[in-house]
Every structure is written in C-alpha cells, then in structure tokens.
C-alpha cells in the first residue's frame, strides 16, 4: 500500500514563497514591466501570511523535542496583529505607529502567565496529595538571587519557575511520574533556569523565546519512554536549559 506524506504550508514554506515573490517583483521592475515601489509598500501583508502559517502549525506530538504548540500560536497572533495594523496604515485606513504599542507585548505576556497559572491550579483543585509525597509540584522565584530545589517525588506533576535577574537550578533526576506527563511553566527575564531530568524522560519544549532561548540538552530515552516533561513559558533576554 502506497503512503503519501501530506504537504503543509509550514512557516519555512511561506517564508520561501515570500522570498520568491520579492525576487519576481524586483526582476519585473528591472524589466520595466511594473514599478516595484507600488507593491513593496504593502510588505506587512507578508507578516500576516507568516502569522497565519504559524497558527496552522500542528500541535506538538509525544516524543518530539521541537518548539511548537503554544509558542507557534502566540507568535502567530503577534505577527498577524502587527502585520494587519501596519497594512491598514499603508492603505490609509488608520494611523498606526508600532513604537506606540510595544508595551502591549508585556500585557500579552502577563495575561498568558495568569491564564496558564489559573488553568494549572484549577486543574489540580480536586487532586489529593499524599502526606508523604507533598513535593509533587515544584515552584519558586529568584529575583536578583538564586535558588536550588530538588524533588524525588514518584508522582511529579510539574510546577512553576520564575527567574528575574537571577537563576533557578532544579534537580528532578530522582523523581518519576505516574500519569506519564508533567508540565513546568518557566519565566526567565534577564535570568536563567536549569532543569535536570531523569534519563527515561523525554522533553518537549513549547516555550516562547524573546531575545532569549530554550535549550534541550537531554539524551533521547533508550527504547522510547511514556514519561514526558513539557516545558512552557517565556525566555526574555534569558534562557531555559534542560539536561540529564
């Protein structure tokens, strides 16, 4: 039976088409077929198309270490908003100056953190934690300082880590999971978060880097593993690193 791979309009495909279109327009301009400046002024439409392609990305699947999911959709919305506003400005529909609205980025990040924290806490409201395993979740904030935490919980469920001009070091190498998946929300602003995980855990990065980075340095589990750590959040001029 013949199997065919489904072609998708990934962000790289859309970016490639945009580059091809730019090249065609300037070539036709050199041939005096059209005036490139009449079309280049609508360049924000490319931002909209790129944002749409990010929104259409498939969600992360188990066992992958690719950035996707939350990051793709959040950045897609940002591209669409900025591109649409700039395009309407070029068309004379409204007056828009990007610099006037850059603080909305902080509003969006703050709302995203609040929403994810709300979902996480309400999702655990009905859970009963055994007294001898009270460290099923891990959390902490490092503000112009640093802290180290260790968890040996055999029912680890995730947590929330914040580093602002500071650092967090989390050691989960003695921990395990019962449900097969745990989620850590990380927020690094001019700081760093380092998470060490067991060898039988796979890692999925769904964070959004803004002048920062998420780095997965773990080794793939031998023979595959049902235990999965999902790392979400933001790295703004900072970094989040996961290693064994």
Describe this structure in words.
The chain has helices at residues 11-30, 37-40, 44-55, 70-90, 104-123; strands at 137-143, 146-150, 158-164, 167-171, 181-189, 192-196, 202-210, 213-216, 228-236, 239-243. Mean pLDDT is 77; it is low at 60-68 and 125-129. Helix 1 (11-30) packs antiparallel against helix 3 (44-55) and helix 3 (44-55) runs antiparallel to helix 4. The protein is an alpha/beta fold. 32% of the residues lie in helices and 27% in strands.
Topology of this protein?
Layout: H1 11-30, H2 37-40, H3 44-55, H4 70-90, H5 104-123, E1 137-143, E2 146-150, E3 158-164, E4 167-171, E5 181-189, E6 192-196, E7 202-210, E8 213-216, E9 228-236, E10 239-243
Parallel strand pairs: 1-3, 2-4, 3-5, 4-6, 5-9, 6-10, 7-9, 8-10
Helix pairs in contact: 1-3, 3-4
SSE ordering: HHHHHEEEEEEEEEE
Tell me, briefly, the overall form. Answer: elongated
Computed structural class: alpha/beta
Low-confidence stretches: 60-68, 125-129
Rounded to the nearest angstrom, the distance between the terminal CA atoms is 41 Å
Strand content: 25-35%
How would you characterize the largest beta sheet?
A: 5 strands, parallel
Number of helices: 5
Number of strands: 10
User: What proportion of the residues is helical, as a percent range?
Assistant: 25-40%
Give a short overview.
This protein has 5 helices and 10 strands; from the N terminus they run αααααββββββββββ. The protein is an alpha/beta fold and 244 residues long.
